[in-house]
Amino acid sequence: MKKILFVMIGMFILAGCGNEESTQDELEEVTLVLDWTPNTNHTGLYVAESKEYFEEEGLDLEIVMPGEAGADQTVASGQAEFGISYQEQVTEARTQDIPLVSIAAVIQHNTSGFAAPVDKEITSPADFAEKAYGGWGAPVESAVIDALMKQEDASVEDVEIVNMGNTDFFTAVERDVDFAWIYYGWTGIEAELRGTEIDMIYLTDYSEKLDYYTPVITTNEEMIEENPETIKKFMAAVSRGYQDAIENPSEAADILAEAVPDLDEELVHASQEWISPKYQDDADRWGEQSAEVWSNYAEFMFDNDLLERELDVEAAYTNEFLPE
C-alpha cells in the first residue's frame, strides 16, 4: 500500500512539473531594451514583471540594458521587440526612414530642464551667457538653449558647450561646468536628498513646443504589421504596471528597489512619490499621446535645422495598442 502511495505521489509531482514546464514553453518570449540604467521612469515595467502581468498575457519578458548599438537601433532592426526611447530620437529616426514607432508616453509632460547649483546664479536663460554647459554632444542641446536664450535677447554663442559624456551631474557642476540638462524626477530629487540647492529652468515654462514626451515606449513597423496581438498583450501588462505605480507609489518603489538592488532605496522612494502623479497627469489614460505634441516638437526641430525633412506625424506614434 505504501509503495502504491509513493508511486501516486511521484506521478502527481511529475505531472505538476510537466504542467509548469508546459506553461513556460507556451509563453512568448519578448525583449525590452532600456534607454539607461533602471530608474523610476521604468518602474511600471518592473511592477508588471513582479506581479506576473506579462505571464497572464502569455508573455515572457526580458528587460535588458542597452548595448553599444543603443535601444533605438536594436528595436528598429528587429533584434528586440520593444524599447525605451524619447520623442526627439523617434522623430529624428522617422525622418531618416528608420522604422521606429512610439506606442506609449511613459510621462505625460516633459519634466526636464536646465539645472545649476544656486551659487552659479543661473535663474533664467539669459544667465547662461558666459557660463559653461555640460552636455552629451547632441545638436538639439544648442538649439534648445538658444531658443530659450533668444526669448531674453541672448544667444547660445555666448555659452561654452562642454561634452561631459556620462559624468555625474553633481561631479560635473562641481568640477567642470556651471549647468546641465537634467530630469528633475531623478537628479533633482537626488539634489534635495543631498541637501544641494539648485535652480531649475524647466523647458515647458518657455515653450509649449518643448513639452514633448520623454521617455516613450517603442516598437518597430514590422512588429505592428505582423504581431499586433503581441503588442496589445505587452501594453496591457505594462499599463497595469504603471497604473499600480500611480495608485501605490510606495509599493512600486519597493518593487523597483528589490529588482535593482544597486539603486539607492531612499532616492527610489522619494523619486517615485514625485513622479507617480506625473505618469498620466491630465491624460484620459496612461500612455496616451497626441498629434499636437508630436507636431509641435517636430516643428521646433525642423525650424532649427535638426531634421532632414518634415515629420510624418501619424506614422511616428500610435495609441491603438493601449487598453481602452
TrEMBL record:
SsuA/THI5-like domain location: 39-252
Superkingdom of the source species: Bacteria
PROSITE patterns, A to Z: PROKAR_LIPOPROTEIN
InterPro entries noted in UniProt: NMT1/THI5 (IPR027939), SsuA/THI5 (IPR015168)
SUPFAM superfamilies: Periplasmic binding protein-like II (SSF53850)
Any one Pfam family match given in the protein's UniProt record, by short name: NMT1
GO biological process, one term: thiamine biosynthetic process
PANTHER family to which the protein is assigned, alphabetical: 4-AMINO-5-HYDROXYMETHYL-2-METHYLPYRIMIDINE PHOSPHATE SYNTHASE THI11-RELATED, THIAMINE BIOSYNTHESIS PROTEIN HI_0357-RELATED
Designated name of the protein: ABC transporter substrate-binding protein
Species per Swiss-Prot/TrEMBL record: Gracilibacillus salitolerans
